[in-house]
Design goal:
The structure is a single chain. By secondary structure, this protein is α/β, with parallel strands linked by helices. Among the domains are: 247 residues, Calcium-transporting ATPase, transmembrane domain (Up-down Bundle); 156 residues, 3-Layer(aba) Sandwich (Rossmann fold); 165 residues, 3-Layer(aba) Sandwich (Calcium-transporting ATPase, cytoplasmic domain N), CATH 3.40.1110. It has 30 helices and 24 strands. The strands form three sheets. Strands 1, 2, 3, 4, 5, 6, 7 and 8 form an eight-stranded mixed beta sheet that branches. An eight-stranded mixed beta sheet has the order 9-24-23-22-10-19-21-20, sandwiched between helices. Strands 11, 12, 13, 14, 15, 16, 17 and 18 form an eight-stranded mixed beta sheet that branches. A hairpin with a 7-residue loop joins β2 and β3. It is elongated, with a radius of gyration of 35 Å. The protein starts with a helix and ends with a helix. The structure holds adenosine-5'-triphosphate and magnesium ion (MG). Adenosine-5'-triphosphate binds next to α14, β13 and β14.
């Protein structure tokens, strides 16, 4: 008999239920064969979709209110209230306009971002494996169903990596453990091993499998009733840290500026509270009030561009910035650098000779794991073993599986207990110790198929019980006490162990994935079978499997290296296999660090080791997470790319978690960025887009902050030197508004390719250095203009001179800001490149408003009159000098 017919049966068998679970099924008007589709549709209409209430987008008023909570808006708002309190209506009105515009822009920006995120979620729709009947009388079919369509009474199959899609009552379970941190905060997985156990929505399956019946969906689940906003709370990433740092520094400055202006003008000019509106306006002038809008727009635009390409889905907007900032990217090996399509390559005995028995036993274990553990998706290694054995003409006649313990996160062996009918001298070598006559296997766990009587009437043994263990060579070897030598078992010596480990290493070093295979004969026993029983084994040999490299991996690694991203491999596999794969991909593996060494190191030492290591091997999930944390402690922005349950902890621990779209559901849920294809080259586009978005935000901040600072300094100086206010509050604010509007065009800038060669982070310190340097330069230009304008006050009458001064300064301010915008754009080679159309239009607009507004009917309304033509000429000189100095300073800053 070949394996194939049995393999399909592995997924279908109906569950046995206990009395209580039968009652549950009955109460839900369901049965072990699942709901008929028509009934499920009716229930869907009755109960509604199974959506998590926290997932619905916020209503508009809430969205609007949330944008008021941002620190800048809050400060603006309070300054507006102060102005209104002082009856400075002009100032209050302009501030009100500023606040409204920024809130509306921000809320619409977020709305747009949310909408595209919702569309993306559809792309990522999570499915559940259900068993339903096409019609009342037909046989049940197991299929994938979007979780939204689950209804109470549905039968759901759970496997490692699945999210528990609704509240379930378990009907049968095989070694099921569930991670319920979202519900209980408990970080260790909990066992759900008894039929009748509840398994709540929001948990994720760590290991084992189960069938359960849905008892509650949508808003009726326990999680929905608990605290929906608790989900997804995480440590602040690089983006949050930078942006918050910048925002709060500025807010502190603003709060300082207003009292400073008041105090100075009281001390020097003897002015009183009448300067308050001016002081408020100056403080407002310092704020980059469009920052939240610019940030949302830049990130949402980047995310939308990526989504439109259909390659990358950004699930959390700030993650796009963080992706551009990543300087170390950790990836798992299997399925990311390799295809995870292993093909059987060789089976050798302990001496390295080809030995078909090794493949036979590995395939026996694989088959029964597949049957008994009810995994919906068979393990790739197991499938490869079965295919190879089938091709060789092997079969499983007379071998019946009883229990299987699959491997899982942190468990690198899988075993199956089988009964071999009649002893089969051909396939069951004489390497097993004689069976100890013992009691019957009376009470094996419920999922074991019924046993034949162990000793039939004739008295001859009906079979022998064999435990077949396969898995990572180190893990299997440490459980072996004997080794098969030409079919005879002998005790393993220390020298044997060294030799066997070396044999496994050699196979791994040639690029193969290696599984050691061991057997033990067990007496019949009444106690349940557990991992502790996997001991005193006899090693029969090693199976080697070839997992081809992913076709684009080498290219992607080279591109990432060119982008200044250091790639590290963090894998559960053998160090030799991982190192070989790296070498073939053009990545120098160096000295691999194994889990044992990671365990031995404390956090500080691990941070040092991790920084200089490229390959981390034999990592269990917690090792992967520790490595990522150690790298972050070392000061790098660390990304992690992985697709399995064993990557979950690391995805959470990283600054940016990345998962391919066909990764398991929990991994996708944990990731910030989902790659639509396994193709790693998409990642490069995402990194560049992230860097471009950060570039836009940086450009905005540099330009705004330096010219705002310049204005504030000039205004303070002029305020003290002049007998009148250098600008009226309304003029300060109007100018601010124009500048803000123009800045939005910066999101369309396309910095040259050279801008994306290094990771890009928003660095508050560098930003404030830039702001000081260029702010001072800007203030110098302002003060030079001030000198020119002071002349005009002299030549004109006092009243008219003041209005002309205001007009002149207004014009100069907008013109310098247009200059700044053109010259301080993003990227190293910005000055050499032509600005894109929106930026050119915006700067031209600024210049036109600056020149014409004082001359228009609005001019007098704002307290400005036309300047004598001579002063335009003088101002042109000042601006030319300023532009030259600015370009020179920027060139110097870049080198
Ligand atoms: N079906 C299986 N039977 C026996 N052993 C297995 C099986 N699958 C995996 N193993 C063992 O467990 C080890 C770890 O597997 P795990 O899934 O943690 O990582 P991986 O798939 O090797 O690599 P990566 O972490 O790069 O995805 C494997 O290297 C192998 O030795
Ligand atoms: Mg993996």
């Amino acid at each position: 008999m070949a394996w194939a017919p049995d393999r399909s049966a592995a997924r279908g068998g109906t569950g046995t239920t206990t009395g209580t679970t039968l009652e549950v099924l009955r109460a839900l008007e369901s049965g072990p064969r699942g709901l008929p589709e028509a009934e499920a549709d009716a229930r869907l209409a009755r109960h509604g979709e199974n959506v998590f209430p926290g997932r619905r987008p916020d209503p508009w008023p809430r969205r609007f209110a949330r944008s008021l909570r941002d620190p800048f808006t809050a400060v603006l708002l309070s300054l507006g209230l102060v102005s209104a309190g002082l009856a400075a209506w002009g100032t209050a009105c302009v501030i009100a306009v500023l606040v409204t515009v920024s809130c509306v822009l921000r809320a619409t920006g977020e709305h747009r971002a949310d909408r595209s995120a919702a569309a993306l979620r559809e792309l990522l729709a999570t499915t559940a494996t259900v068993r339903r009947r096409p019609a009342e009388t037909e046989e049940p079919v197991t299929r994938e169903l979007p979780v939204e369509q689950l209804v109470p009474g549905d039968l759901v199959l759970l496997a490692p990596g699945d999210l528990v899609p609704a509240d379930l009552r378990l009907l049968r379970t095989t070694g099921l453990t569930v991670h319920e941190a979202a519900l209980t905060g408990e970080s260790a997985p909990v066992a759900r091993s008894a039929p009748g156990d509840l398994c709540l929505q929001g948990g994720s399956v760590v290991s084992g499998s189960a069938t359960g019946v849905v008892v509650a969906t949508g808003a009726d689940t326990v999680l929905s009733g608990a605290v929906p906003q608790e989900r997804g709370r995480r440590l602040p990433g690089p983006f949050d840290r930078s942006v918050n740092g910048i925002a709060w520094t500025l807010v502190r400055c603003m709060l300082l500026v207003a009292p400073l202006v008041l105090l100075a003008s009281a001390l020097v000019r003897g002015r009183g509270m009448e300067t308050l509106p001016f002081a408020v306006a100056v403080a407002v002038g310092l704020t980059p009030e469009m920052l939240p809008v610019v940030v949302t727009t830049a990130l949402a635009r980047g995310a939308a561009l990526l989504a439109r390409g259909g390659e990358v889905i950004v699930r959390r907007l700030p993650a796009l910035h963080d992706l551009g900032a990543v300087d170390v990217l950790c990836v798992d090996k299997t399925g990311t650098l390799t295809q995870d399509r292993p093909v059987f390559a060789c089976a050798v005995d302990a001496e390295g000779r080809d030995d078909p028995a090794v493949l036979h036993w590995a395939a026996v274990a694989a088959l029964w794991t597949l049957h008994l553990a009810e995994l919906p998706a068979p393990d790739a290694l197991d499938e490869a073993l079965l295919d190879a054995d089938e091709e060789r003409g092997g079969g499983a006649d007379g071998v019946e599986g009883l229990v299987a313990l699959p491997c899982g996160p942190g468990r690198r062996i899988a075993s199956a207990l089988v009964r071999v009918a009649g002893g089969e001298p051909g396939t069951l070598p004489d390497l097993l110790p004689d069976p100890v006559p013992g009691s019957l296997w009376g009470s094996l766990p419920g999922n074991v198929r019924p046993l034949q009587p162990l000793r039939p009437a004739g008295g001859a043994p009906a079979g022998r019980y064999v435990l077949v263990v396969k898995g990572a060579a180190e893990d299997v070897l440490e459980r072996c006490t004997r080794v098969s030598d030409e079919g005879h078992a002998r005790v393993i010596s220390a020298a044997d162990r060294t030799r066997l480990a070396a044999r496994a290493d050699a196979l791994a070093g040639s690029g193969l994935r290696v599984l050691a295979v061991a057997l033990a004969e067990r007496p019949a026993s009444t106690s349940p079978y557990a991992p502790e029983d996997e001991r005193e084994l006899t090693l029969v040999g090693f199976a080697g499997l070839q997992d081809a490299l992913a076709p684009t991996a080498a290219e992607a690694l080279a591109v990432l290296a060119g982008r200044g991203v250091t790639v590290k491999v963090v894998t559960g596999d053998h160090p030799g296999t991982a190192a070989r794969a790296c070498r073939e991909l053009g990545l120098d593996p160096g000295e691999p660090l194994t889990a044992a060494r990671i365990d031995a190191a404390d956090d500080a030492e691990l941070a040092r080791l991790a920084a200089r290591t490229t390959v981390f091997a034999r990592c269990a999930p917690e090792h992967k997470a520790r490595v990522v944390r150690a790298l972050r402690t070392g000061g790098t922005t660390t990304g992690f790319l992985g697709d399995g349950v064993n990557d979950l902890a690391a995805l959470h621990a990283a600054d940016v978690g990345i998962c391919p779209r066909d990764g398991v559901a929990v991994a996708r849920e944990a990731a910030d960025v989902v790659l639509a294809s396994k193709d790693l080259t998409a990642l490069d586009r995402a990194v560049v887009t992230g860097r471009r978005s950060t570039g836009h935000i940086t450009a905005y901040l540099r330009i705004t902050l330096s010219s705002n600072l310049g204005n504030v300094i000039a205004m303070l100086a002029a305020g003290l030197l002049l007998p009148f206010l250098p600008m009226l509050p309304a003029q300060v604010l109007v100018q601010n508004l124009c500048f803000d509007a123009a800045q939005l065009a910066l999101a369309f800038d396309r910095p040259g390719a050279a801008a994306h060669l290094r990771p890009v982070v928003l660095r508050p310190r560098a930003l404030f250095r830039f702001m000081t340097r260029f702010g001072l330069l800007n203030a110098t230009a302002d003060l030079a203009t001030f000198g020119v304008l002071a002349l005009s006050v002299h030549s004109l009458g006092a009243e008219e001179g003041q209005a002309a001064f205001h007009a002149g300064w207004f014009t100069e301010n907008l013109l310098t800001q247009a200059l700044v915008m053109l010259l301080l754009r993003a990227g190293r080679d910005a000055a050499e490149r032509r600005a894109p159309l929106p930026v050119r239009l915006a700067t031209a607009g600024l210049a036109v408003v600056g020149l014409l507004l004082p001359l228009s009917p609005l001019g007098p309304a704002l307290g400005m009159t036309a300047l004598p033509p001579l002063y335009y000429a003088l101002m042109a000189v000042v601006l030319t000098l300023y532009g030259t100095a600015l370009a020179a300073a920027h060139r110097k800053a870049r080198t």
